């Protein structure tokens, strides 16, 4: 198993930036594709971004493309989500996720990921 712990959430004004971190422990982090999902109050959980095991491939939801950047440092067992030009609609609990895989793919469905962090709140004030 792998344990995931997010950090870096908080309150920020619209137009500002935050960087979320996801610290992984328990298994070889480079064996896992990872991603970020979010859930706003009263809304469905939604895909935000995903990155392959090696970090060579990444993809994003249309709503965050050009503003968010996902990355990872396998030597530090940590993933990141850099969020720029934040909007009020980005307010949500953000979850780091991981999927054990032997491929170089990225994954888009919540059901693709077996491991989830506890979530970190991001609030963007307008």
Structure description:
The chain is mostly beta strands and 126 residues long. The protein has no helices and eleven strands. Helix content is 0%, strand content 50%. The termini are far apart. The mean pLDDT is 96.
Cα-atom radius of gyration: 13 Å
Biggest pleated sheet: 7 strands, mixed
Helix content: under 10%
- The pLDDT mean sits at 96
Q: Specify the number of helices.
A: 0
Q: What order do the helices and strands follow?
A: EEEEEEEEEEE
Count of individual beta strands: 11
The proportion of strand residues reads over 45%
The general outline is globular
Distance between the termini: 40 Å
Descriptive terms for the model:
7-stranded mixed beta sheet, 4-stranded antiparallel beta sheet, mainly beta, 126 residues, single chain
Could you outline the blueprint of secondary structure elements for this entry?
Elements: E1 3-7, E2 10-13, E3 18-25, E4 32-39, E5 46-51, E6 58-60, E7 68-73, E8 78-83, E9 92-100, E10 115-116, E11 120-125
Parallel strand pairs: 2-11
Antiparallel strand pairs: 1-3, 3-8, 4-5, 4-9, 5-6, 7-8, 9-10, 9-11
Brief write-up:
The protein is an all-beta fold and 126 residues long.
